[in-house]
Amino acid sequence: MMQNEPFPTALFWKELRLAPHRLLGLDYDGTLAPFRVRRMEATPLEGVPKLVEDLSLLPETTVAVVSGRPIEEILLLLGGFPVFIAGSHGFELRSPGGKMETYPPAPRQAGGLVRAREAAVQMGLGKRLEIKIASVALHTRGMAPERARDMEQLLFQAWTRIGRRFRLSCRYFNGGVEIRAQSRDKGTILHRILSLLPSHTFPVYIGDDDTDEDAFRALRDDGFGIRVGHCGAGTAARAFLADAAAVKGFLEEWIEMMKEGN
Q1: Which end of the chain offers a freer environment for a tag, N or C, measured as fewer CB atoms within 10 Å?
Q2: Is residue 27 within a helix (H) or strand (E), and if so which, with residue range?
């Protein structure tokens, strides 16, 4: 599919309906919920939780919310529907039945994350840090743009040096920068979820920033990635949706199309 072609197309819906089973993966921030300066105020658009629940009840359909947030935050903000929830970029996984899997970083990586946190605190950035199971994130949303950019670049350089020594990766995201263990990402956890589903499942994943590119690349050969926001170059996604409101419309259309196909 050409990335400038209007989406979704009739061909996409046909392929989706013909699939013996479907996986819909959804990022949270910027995809199901607009960004907010205060992270716990980033609630889903009105009606979106009900759509996620309705999607999960469709025949031969599995839904997964895949986020950089910890699972406990997704449960608070979205609700505990019978869906997979992957948190902390794939280092946590909750099944629809509530079973939890966690993947702690290796001891050396954990030590590197401690050093990364200490480096940020020494720079006076401690109050803006978020500590997760296998990463440390600096949040800059709400700051003056130039100040945020300078802070992110400074910490990115310091964390990249630490990362080289401790098998950690440093990545920008929409509203900050994060250092995390290299062993897992959103693509890795999507493959884990797919391993639990019927063979020939057709996976679709929707996300909005660079951390979602891992998922798009993982699905490039046998699935469909949809990027939310700016149609920039270099993405592995196959199509675009403008914003969280467009994602909501897509979810509504998915439900209607699947009902028509039955």
Answers
A1: C
A2: none
User: In whole angstroms, what is the distance from residue 164 CA to residue 225 CA?
Assistant: 30
CA 251 to chain centre: 16
Q: Which fold has domain 107-181?
A: Alpha-Beta Plaits (3.30.70)
pLDDT in tens, 148-182: 999 999 999 999 999 999 999 999 998 999 999 99
> How far apart (Å, rounded) are the C-alpha atoms in residues 133 and 117?
13
CA dist., res. 173 & res. 57, Å (int): 32
The CATH number, out of the four listed (3.40.50.1000, 3.40.50.261, 3.30.200.20, 3.30.43.10), of the domain defined by the range 10-103+185-260 = 3.40.50.1000
Other CB atoms within 10 A of residue 111 CB:
13
| pLDDT digits 0-9 by tens, 4-47 | 567 889 999 999 999 999 999 999 999 999 999 888 999 999 99
pTM for this structure? 0.92
